[in-house]
Amino acid sequence: MKLLSGKPGWTVNADVIVIGSGVAGLTTALNLRASNLSVLLVTKAKIDEGSTKWAQGGIAAALGPGDTPGQHKKDTLIAGAGLCDAEAVDVLVTEGPEAVRKLISRGAVFDKSDTGEIALTREGGHLRNRILHAGGDATGAEVSRALLAAVQGDAGIEVIENALAIDVLQTATGSVCGVTVHVIGAGSRDGVGRALARAVVIATGGLGQVYAQTTNPSVSTGDGVALALRAGAEIADVEFIQFHPTVLWRDDSLSGQQPLISEAVRGEGAVLVNDKGIHFMEGKHPQKDLAPRDIVAIEIFKQMKESNSPHVWLDTTGINDFPERFPTIFAFCNDNGIDPRMQMIPVSPAAHYSSGGVKVDLVGRTSVAGLYACGETACTGAHGANRLASNSLLEGLVFGTRIAADIALNIGEQGLPNEQSTGAFLLDPAIKMTLQLAMSQGAGVMRSGDSLRETLATLKQLATHVSSSPCIEAWEVSNLYLLATAIARAALEREESRGSHWRSDFPESSSDWISRIVQSYDGNGKWNSKLMEVH
Questions:
Q1: Among 62, 66, 144, 305, which residue's CB has the most CB atoms within a 10 Å radius?
Q2: With contact defined as beta carbons under 8 Å apart, do 375 and 55 qualify?
Q3: CA within 13 Å, CB half, 197
Q4: From its phi and psi, is residue 177 left (phi > 0), alpha (psi between -120 and 50) or beta?
């Protein structure tokens, strides 16, 4: 089953297609060029508009005195709540320091201490200072800038902006040989076309727009995960949606991307208080306000429910150098009438990061030949049930490098697309808000069997709202529908609370659930699910 689209009007060729221009996609593309492979980089908006540039947090790596990959691994495993793939974590923490050094050699500039060394800070779940920052709270923007400069200086990387990858092209034997792409604009490549390649890497970022409120930009509609699903690839761990605990609350009626208050602010001494002024994380976890994100988010949710308030407060008044330390956050707080030096910031949880995604091995291969996935789109198993803070940018660097190396060694010949029609579907863009609200209310921070069944019933009803008019909005909402269904199905199946998955009817973790839920979709509307043992 494919998305309904027009007949391709143009064709382009490359050795490898990389879909996405965040840290994962750019790193992969640059490393592919080191093996002299031509790259077509397809990005949904402008090349610098993905999630990477919004990352206020930093990059975690064992670079400091006395720190080791083993200690980084221990913190990652604890945050992952028993579901991390140990081999994937080993790869992440042992290859991470070199990946960061490579990024610095490409021009990325990180904040320095008074002694001239890279300044390392601490974030939630880390027991040592190992977080590199740039511009205080603008790490993602600096990483994006450095990688983009390298990409734009390479004639072997062709970039197509404002282009949505609709579906993968597959040979008669099922291996991937390209993608169909829709370009918004005019020129030699506008409308639907097809890009042919010997391998395809999906690095499209997150799926936060499946919820009503998120830290993700508007382009984060999970297109890559949905595209992989329709191609027959397996997905895993999608029930584990990390809700960032501290997002600036402005108004419940506002939907879409909301301003994030980095936990680095709590790392500098800010504390969470409720409407009564009580520091409620005291006694809830040894690390208090710097506990893993799932712990903090659920405590905030409980406080909001008890007080019937739409938010709690982040007391930042003790941070005297707030404007210098967090210039971006200070600016958007000011834009919303808040001076963090004198006023507390209203905050509430919002969808932030998907620990699950397209199931891949240690070199980024999916279950479909020729198809790779990297970054937030992928599920390496390194995050388990809850990603440790600042491991996401690191994952893109490490696994982007590994994918490029595997493609260079094993890339096959160019296959021919199977021209046989497999049917197509498309949903009405008008269902988007109803879908997002259903997910936020029934499959959000706190879930239950009843809320998830109600969400799935709503989604089933929304599936009847079909469209015969292909457009970006219809393709996006069709992707969101597929992802919402996968998330709600997995969340209903997992009858326990673990990591970033909380069930009010199953409030405890269970040893019966130390396994991963792997799903696939046969294209005719039938879902398959299996449990996979954690290694």
A1: 144
A2: no
A3: 30
A4: alpha
- Residue 413 DSSP one-character state: P
For 228-263, write each residue's pLDDT tens digit: 999 999 999 999 999 999 999 988 777 788 999 988
Same domain (yes/no): 268, 372: no
Contacts of 125 (CB under 8 A, 6+ apart): 75, 78, 79, 287, 290, 291, 292, 293, 388, 389
503 and 379, same structural domain? no
226 lies in the same domain as 254: no
CA-CA distance, 385 to 501, in Å (whole number)? Answer: 7
The count of residues in the chain is 535
The predicted-structure confidence for 50-109, as pLDDT tens digits, reads as follows 667 767 678 999 999 999 999 999 999 999 999 999 999 999 999 999 999 999 999 999
- Token pair of 415 as six digits: 């296959």
From the list 463, 32, 526, the residue with the least C-alpha distance to 232 is: 526
Place of tokens 């490098």: 401
Which residue is it, tokens 């670079």?
63
Residue 531's DSSP bridge partners are: 517
Of 245-249, 348-352, 425-429, 523-527, give the lowest mean pLDDT range: 523-527
CB atoms < 10 A from the CB of 216, how many? 28
Tell me the β-bridge partners of 42: 19, 160
Domain co-membership, 324 together with 462: no
Contact 493, 527 (CB under 8 A): no
Q: Are 476 and 225 in contact (CB under 8 A)?
A: no
- Determine the straight-line distance between the first and last CA of the chain, rounded to whole angstroms: 33
Quick check: 497 and 506 in contact, CB under 8 A?
yes
Cα angle value 160/162/164 (rounded, 5°): 90
Sign of CA dihedral 211, 217, 223, 228: negative
Residue 27 lies in a domain: yes
C-alpha distances in Å from residue 425, one per residue of 66, 92, 167, 208, 384: 55, 38, 12, 23, 33
Only one residue has tokens 């974030």, namely 123
Q: Are residues 151 and 48 in the same domain?
A: yes
Bigger pLDDT: 178 or 301? 178
Active site residues: 293
The answer, yes or no, to whether residue 186 has pLDDT greater than 70, is: no
pLDDT in tens, 490-504: 999 999 999 999 999
Range of the domain at 148: 2-54+138-240+355-410
Q: What is the DSSP string of 477-530?
A: HHHHHHHHHHHHHHHHH--S-BTTB-BTTB-S--GGG-EEEEEEE-SSS-EEEE
Would you list the DSSP string of 432-486?
HHHHHHHHHHHBSSSB-HHHHHHHHHHHHHHTT-B-SS--HHHHHHHHHHHHHHH
Helix axes 23-33, 392-410, angle to 10 degrees: 30
Q: DSSP character for 162?
A: S
**DSSP letter assigned to residue 316:** -
Q: How many CB atoms lie within 10 A of CB 88?
A: 24
